[in-house]
Design goal:
This protein has about 250 residues and is an alpha+beta fold. It has four helices and ten strands; from the N terminus they run ββββαβαββαβββα. It has one domain: Ribosomal Protein S5, domain 2 (2-Layer Sandwich). A hairpin with a 2-residue loop joins β2 and β3. Bound molecules: adenosine-5'-diphosphate.
């Protein structure tokens, strides 16, 4: 964000972006639920050039016991990028950025999980970024919601998330890496369609109030589309499970 970009044009004369998308167009998204046998819930998402796997465990009794909350479950999220997920080898292990992203995703999810139903427990969410090309916190949060639903954890709704930003003076949806690096603003949004709540909102860069309003509306409209893809992934998983049960009975 904000790196000087003399001579780099991110939007062409036809108003199209470097990967040919229109300003309000999402990258292709594929979501699959229930991809891991041993996790309680899981999801895999391919979002443009991002590839992310999420595993969920719990609710499980939290140890050591002094960390337990007698009133609700603790939502513990770990976002991690594989060393091979970016062009230069990423140093393994947590860093400032991954600690921040783990925190904001965990806090967003706490808004939708019925944590009071599971006192003294932990709900663990592991987000593993296998390939990254900007927007991984939004893709990770979107997939984590599906993985939690796949684990059967009661929630008031799924969270759909997407990043909106400003590139060459224009508000655009779902930034790729070059737009993130050389653009003027990046605003990740996490939205709960059933309640209309925004549970994740960050801003890197500058936007006027009018630009922010436009960006937020564009993001929310896109989240509604992503929400349909999340539900579709869950439906496909349960159709598959039901088919397997029927086959076993036969
Ligand atoms: P997000 O992935 O949510 O957009 P950032 O804006 O912090 O989060 O990062 C944008 C992109 O920059 C990432 O998706 C990834 O492609 C790249 N990136 C992040 N951290 C590193 C790193 N340590 N080394 C190389 N590239 C990185």
């Amino acid at each position: 964000m904000g790196i000087k970009k003399e001579g780099i044009k991110l939007i062409n004369e036809d108003g199209l972006r470097i990967d040919g998308r229109k300003p309000d167009e999402l990258r292709p998204i594929k979501i699959e639920a229930g991809v891991l046998k041993r996790a309680d819930g899981s999801a895999y998402i391919e979002w443009g050039k991002n590839k992310i796997l999420v595993g969920v465990y719990g609710p499980r009794e939290l140890h050591p016991r002094h960390l337990q909350d007698p009133t609700k479950a603790k939502v513990q999220c770990r976002y991690d990028m594989a060393s091979f997920s970016v062009i230069d080898r990423k140093r393994p292990g947590p860093d400032r950025r991954s600690i921040e992203i783990s925190k904001i995703i965990g806090e967003a999810l706490e808004n939708v999980i019925f944590t009071h139903q599971f006192p003294r427990t932990s709900i663990d969410i592991y987000i593993e970024v296998l390939e990254a090309n900007a927007g991984t916190r939004c893709a990770g949060l979107t997939a984590a919601s599906v993985a939690l639903a796949d684990a059967g954890i009661p929630m008031k709704d799924l969270i759909a998330a997407v990043s909106v930003g400003k590139v060459d003076g224009e508000i655009v949806l779902d930034l790729v890496k070059e737009e993130d690096n050389y653009g003027e603003a990046d605003v990740p949004i996490g939205y709960v369609p059933r309640t209309g709540e925004v549970v994740l909102l960050q801003m890197d860069g500058d936007l006027s109030y009018e630009e922010f309003e436009k960006a937020l509306n564009m993001g929310i409209e896109a989240c509604k589309k992503i929400y349909e893809m999340q539900k579709d992934a869950l439906k496909r998983k349960y159709v598959k499970v039901a088919t397997e049960i029927v086959e076993e009975v036969e």
